[in-house]
TrEMBL record:
UniProt name for this protein: Signal recognition particle protein
The species this protein was found in: Hasllibacter halocynthiae
A cellular-component GO term for this protein: plasma membrane
Lipid bilayer topology: Peripheral membrane protein
Amino-acid positions noted as binding GTP in the UniProt annotation, renumbered to this chain: 108-115, 191-195, 249-252
Role noted for this protein: Involved in targeting and insertion of nascent membrane proteins into the cytoplasmic membrane. Binds to the hydrophobic signal sequence of the ribosome-nascent chain (RNC) as it emerges from the ribosomes. The SRP-RNC complex is then targeted to the cytoplasmic membrane where it interacts with the SRP receptor FtsY. Interaction with FtsY leads to the transfer of the RNC complex to the Sec translocase for insertion into the membrane, the hydrolysis of GTP by both Ffh and FtsY, and the dissociation of the SRP-FtsY complex into the individual components.
Subunit (UniProt): Part of the signal recognition particle protein translocation system, which is composed of SRP and FtsY. SRP is a ribonucleoprotein composed of Ffh and a 4.5S RNA molecule.
Span of domain SRP54-type proteins GTP-binding: 270-283
Domain of life per record: Bacteria
Entry EC no(s): 3.6.5.4
Chief location: membrane
């Protein structure tokens, strides 16, 4: 197990007094530990450095009351700053799905959890918001992926667009749009094809689909355990396609969630949900406090 930040800082500040203000030196010593904790949690180096510099500025000169130790004080400042950085604007769980049929475009690399997350979000919208949802798989390269979405749809009682062999992703997107309008769905979700890595063909395809659908939300699904790779993927998709939010999957794993901080710092896009398991109700609205606690250990 990792040593928690409080434990680390407890040691650092053992010999310091309980009163007075935090000196620049005190803070610098403490923040060395903070930086190590962030790096251990898989936060990228530039992001960790920048974060620590901000905390240094905020913490220096802050008075420490009798009731807390300087260590606790620094932990609180770090925690507040971490939470503020992780928090996007508005409610992460509130998807823009007014003016039906509202299109949601799901993008990401293969294996990141895109199809599963599509079904999880559909289930949530159907159950919690009583929305009529239509899901469509655009993964024409992998018939198994199209089947997978149909099966998930049956499991959660959400309709999927019937599969018509031979159609292109753009044709499927057009059909989903027309069907959603005709049959009065509130939302239609397009589960785009994934690739093992980002390539021009994938991006051109997703772009063409985006232009057909004009999505209200474009959610990037990435494996939260892949750290810096997840951040690079997000940068690439955002630059080319424009994303409105991120879903981090596999947050039930051992990862410390540092990717979340790097993701926010680098892309500026809000994290909307986290996937916490394979089951179709294992999806939680992103809570900055929770991830902050996990990063700090
Ligand atoms: P896609 O290729 O991006 O569509 O990925 P899939 O949706 O097919 O998911 C790949 C695998 O990851 C499947 O076995 C899913 O059950 C699993 N998976 C997806 N999300 C999560 C998650 O949040 N936690 C865990 N533990 N597994 C997940």
């Amino acid at each position: 197990m990792f040593e928690s930040l409080s434990e680390r800082l407890g040691g650092v500040f053992e010999r310091l007094t309980k009163q007075g203000a935090l000196s620049e030196d005190d803070v610098r010593t403490a923040l060395r530990e903070v930086r190590v904790a962030l790096l251990e949690a898989d936060v990228s180096l530039p992001v960790a450095r920048d974060f620590v510099a901000r905390v240094q500025e905020k913490a220096t000169g802050q008075s420490v009351t009798r009731s807390v130790t300087p260590g606790q004080q620094v932990v609180k400042i770090v925690n507040d700053e971490l939470t503020a950085t992780l928090r996007g604007e508005g409610d992460p769980g509130a998807l823009k799905i007014d003016s039906p049929p509202a299109p949601i475009l799901m993008v990401g690399l293969q294996g990141g959890g895109k199809t599963t997350t599509t079904a999880k979000i559909a289930k949530r919208l159907a159950e919690r918001e009583r929305k009529r949802v239509l899901m469509a798989s655009l993964d024409t390269n992998r018939p198994a992926a199209m089947e997978q979405l149909a099966i998930l749809g049956q499991q959660i009682g959400v309709d999927t667009l019937p599969i018509v062999p031979g159609e292109t992703p753009v044709q499927i997107a057009r059909r989903a749009k027309a069907q959603a309008a005709l049959a009065g769905y509130d939302v239609y979700m397009l589960d785009t094809a994934g690739r093992l890595s980002i390539d021009e063909e994938l991006m051109a395809q997703v772009e063409a689909v985006r232009d057909v659908a004009s999505p209200r939300e474009t959610l990037l699904v990435v494996d939260g355990l892949t750290g810096q790779d997840a951040v690079t993927t997000a940068e690439n998709f955002d630059e080319r396609i424009g994303i409105t939010g991120v879903v981090l999957t596999r947050m039930d794993g051992d990862g410390r969630g540092g990717a979340a901080l790097s993701m926010r710092a680098v892309t500026g896009k809000p994290i909307r949900f986290v996937g916490t398991g394979e089951k179709l109700d294992a999806l939680e609205t992103f809570e900055p406090e929770r991830i902050a606690g996990r990063i700090l250990g």
